[in-house]
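Morning F.,

Quick status update on the modeling queue. The single chain you submitted on Monday has been processed. Sequence for confirmation:
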Amino acid sequence: MPEQPPYLRIADELRQRIAEHVWEPGDRLPSRAQIGQECGVGENVVRRAQELLISQGVLEGRAGSGTYVAEPRQRVRVVRSSAREQPEGSPFRADMKAVGRQGDWESRTDAKVPAPAGIAARLGIGEGELCVRTAYEFLADGRPVQLSTSWEPYDLTAGSLVVLPEGGPHAGAGVVNRMAAIGITVSHAVEQPEPRQATAEEASLLGIQKAALVTHIRRTYYSDQGRPVETADIVVPAAHCEIVYEIPISR
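Structure tokens below.
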């Protein structure tokens, strides 16, 4: 069996000290040099161990001050389910209400944006064809907990009242209800979640450590004719949110 990398061993040691209340939430950790000397490793090994624990929400780094034991946070539950598409109301707001928080979001829409190659492939259109792109920042009690960037083919909604997802009489109604307003039936969605590290921009928007772990969900809605009508990249910070999938069962 291969030997465990040194930084993982140190991360386990630091995690154990926290579990045994050697360090309490809010306590400042000793210097990397001191920890390295105690554990028989170099400062770079300690730094990698601390970065791992910061990405997991166990520690937090404070610029110019040091590394601290993170205060425990209640993770926000984000429910993923096609059954949560409702004629009225927002599933995100319902999730936040369930944990006693106020849910809201901010958005910015750009129309007639050329589709990058990856987005075009997901939408079944040619690279460079025009799309409506909307960037969302979802908030719980005013704090960002989720990011999303959606893309819709411009020719699908051009000239209609739903061309802007967050504008007009159907603003904020969601993909299923907006498409229904122009006679398109959305039959299903496909989601592909995968873990990765946050980019610098995502970390800044979400208020998390750079390279912290996030769940990246690629979601695409399809019409009953099999056409992709919207695709989105959803980013959820792993340390602050838990993702739960509800599976509806037909009887």
